[in-house]
Amino acid sequence: MFDFRLKVFYVVAKYLSFTKASQELLISQPAITKHIKEIETKLAIRIFERKGNRISLTPAGKILFEKAKISLSDLNVLMHLGSTESIKTYLHHSDAMGIISCAAIKKEVEAGILKTIKIRGIKFKRNFRFVYNQGGPRGLASKFMAFAKRHYNYKL
Predict the structure, then answer these.
(1) How many structural domains is the chain composed of?
(2) Model-level pTM greater than 0.90?
(3) 14 membership: H or E segment, kind and range
(4) Each residue of 137-156: pLDDT tens digit?
(5) Which structural domain, as residue segments, surrounds residue 154?
(6) CA quadruple 86, 93, 126, 61: dihedral, nearest 10
(7) Measured between alpha carbons, how far apart are the two ends of the chain, in Å?
(8) Domain shared by 91 and 140, yes or no
(9) Strand partners, 57
(10) What are the pLDDT digits (tens) for 95-128?
(11) Per-residue 3-state assignment (H helix, E strand, C coil) for 98-151
(12) Burial state string for 122-143 with b = 16 or more CB within 10 A and e = fewer than 16
């Protein structure tokens, strides 16, 4: 859901207009306002300066606008697929592009089936969750979690 709110922010910032953003995104103006307030609450910063009927970006809003993964959402998204295997199969049989972990397509890249393209300036953040039996992880599972914590700076 936060990704959509970020898209709302991006469109509002692009036009500096809640009305134009609501027209482009096909949602109501109060919904636009709600999404922006939720972003400001979550980030604990103001991203827009409101002066009467006009808005402008705050310094923090300017930084967020410059850094926003929205250039990706400007792409023509054909579909969202629910698994790594379905994405790989679709990409193999189409001329489309997708976003997937390099580790997940290592064999396909080595075989020349798929190819990777680096996108400068874009970083993807992933959250990992661990599930284990009551009493805590043991053995190899414990070692893997320690490895993940060390190398991915993930708070367990």
Answers:
(1) 3
(2) no
(3) helix 2-15
(4) 889 988 988 888 777 654 44
(5) 126-156
(6) -130
(7) 23
(8) no
(9) 48
(10) 788 888 888 999 999 999 998 887 777 777 766 6
(11) CCCCCHHHHHHHHCCCCCCCCCCCCCCCCCCCCCCCCCCCCHHHHHHHHHHHHH
(12) eeeeeeeeeeeeeeebeeeeee
